[in-house]
Amino acid sequence: MRPRLDVWFTEEHAPGLRFSMRVTHELVRRRSDYQEIAVLETQEFGKVLILDGYLMVTEKDEFIYHEMIVHVPLAVHPDIRRVLVIGGGDGGAVRELVRYDTIEEIDLVDIDPDVIDVCEAWLPQLAEKLRDPRVTIHFADGVRFMRQVSRPYDLIIIDSTDPFGPGEGLFTREFYGSCHAGLTEDGILINQHESLFYDEYRVAMRRVHDRLGRLFPVARVYQAHIPTYPSGHWLFGFSSKRYDPLLDLDAEGWLARGIRTNYYNPELHRGAFALPNYIRRELEGDRQARLK
Amino acid sequence: MRPRLDVWFTEEHAPGLRFSMRVTHELVRRRSDYQEIAVLETQEFGKVLILDGYLMVTEKDEFIYHEMIVHVPLAVHPDIRRVLVIGGGDGGAVRELVRYDTIEEIDLVDIDPDVIDVCEAWLPQLAEKLRDPRVTIHFADGVRFMRQVSRPYDLIIIDSTDPFGPGEGLFTREFYGSCHAGLTEDGILINQHESLFYDEYRVAMRRVHDRLGRLFPVARVYQAHIPTYPSGHWLFGFSSKRYDPLLDLDAEGWLARGIRTNYYNPELHRGAFALPNYIRRELEGDRQARLK
Questions:
Q1: Closest CA to B110 of B158, B177, B151, B69
Q2: Residue B2 covered by a domain
Q3: Distance between CA A133 and CA A126 in Å, rounded?
Q4: What pLDDT shows up at residue A164?
Q5: What pTM, to 2 d.p., does this model score?
Q6: ipTM field
Q7: Which of A44, A255, A262 sits opposite B14 (nearest CB)?
Q8: What's residue B70's pLDDT?
Q9: Cα(B168)–Cα(B237) distance, integer angstroms
Q10: Within this chain, do residues A27 and A97 fall inside the same structural domain, yes or no?
Q11: Which one of A225, A275, A282 makes the best mutation probe of the B interface by having the most chain B beta carbons within 10 Å?
Q12: In terms of domains, do A165 and A256 share one?
């Protein structure tokens, strides 16, 4: 099992904190117009997709991330037909979405065709449903795409990379405003919200939460355990024009769909919104006094 | 900030997975009669306690572990007066326990006096309450101590190391039987339950869950996000002769105590018992068909 050639991929999760995986094969390494794309075979996590040196997904734990960005809104909104995924060229979000036969159209916007090529070639576990007839892939900048949306969506999922590099614009006030405008009157916006445990993104993510809270009547944050992401404690934003993620959760309806999941379930859905105090205080800022 | 002498502590969280912290000072390294004890100052996590090469606690995230092993049972059982902590020589569990003025006696059993010495000298944030007048420290083997308990406890917390080395006996059927016998008729047993994400302890921990389920009418598992432990997804066992961790949760009563916590709150308490499907299936084994 252990190769003689001892090769490691290392990501710095915080200054002075390294997370390293043993690499059994380098499958592909390519520079696209936007970023460096690599797929490595690792001992513990199977194949992993790395963009500009940052780990995006691993075969072993991608189910957690993708189930949590898709099934949470789908268990709340009773009639999601049109969905937009921004980023997500790996196909993991689409794979979960196409399990709902009530979804009629899925637009996927990714700036980088090479990400999709690489994932279709090397990560079929993720990309297998990108050719589903309901899916339309747009190679475009997410920010620009959102400015010209004419038919609104029931659900928008911002499946972005980190708040720097090609995905930077997907964390701005302007972009969130376009998302709000591009949603139906009962639409839901899901965004990946990074972790708040290390200092690096804490301030940026509090700002994101404030921005979404000014735009949407419902702006909540929920969590999942994702072992290969910094701190393992990952957050997502649930912003909505009408539906509340807990009051409007239709647990029985979701279970009746018979979708087998490895992480998500309706009880966990409720628990995912019960955040630790240090996160609540960080997100609430000055409203700390209200914290119970 | 970054020292010129670049020193790293590395723990292998799984085969082919390394978690490494930059060390700014080695504060102490000592071999006791039982294990090698070290305290390192790190860039990101402050001081960290390491036993036989395995990271035990860090100043930055120890609050999560210690709040979760103490406040969960204390918010459920209405009248906890006598508590036993097995292991836990760092003092973190005791520090949380002494915040309850209704607790009258705390016995701490740790096999290794050197752990307590080192923590009192180098980790006062953890050890500061070990001299509380309600605390009695017993330097003894936990398994032997439990065989001769005469007055039962309302709460026993197994704050053990991993299921090998000096703490190995704290995962056996005999030991859990002694704990059951050493509890009052409405007593609660809390044990640290490792993580199930990596293969290493998965089988051992399913066995632990089965053992506790045969002894106690209520045997549940709950979770927390602990960034420095393998996978970041840590489990605890809640075994009880009478109280259910959710049905008997007294959220208002707990909040009325006015204990300020950084991780725990009663909503999170409920969420902590809502486990991901892959954990539920693992713990339930053949009862998988019942899984919703």
A1: B158
A2: no
A3: 17
A4: 77
A5: 0.95
A6: 0.94
A7: A44
A8: 98
A9: 17
A10: no
A11: A225
A12: yes
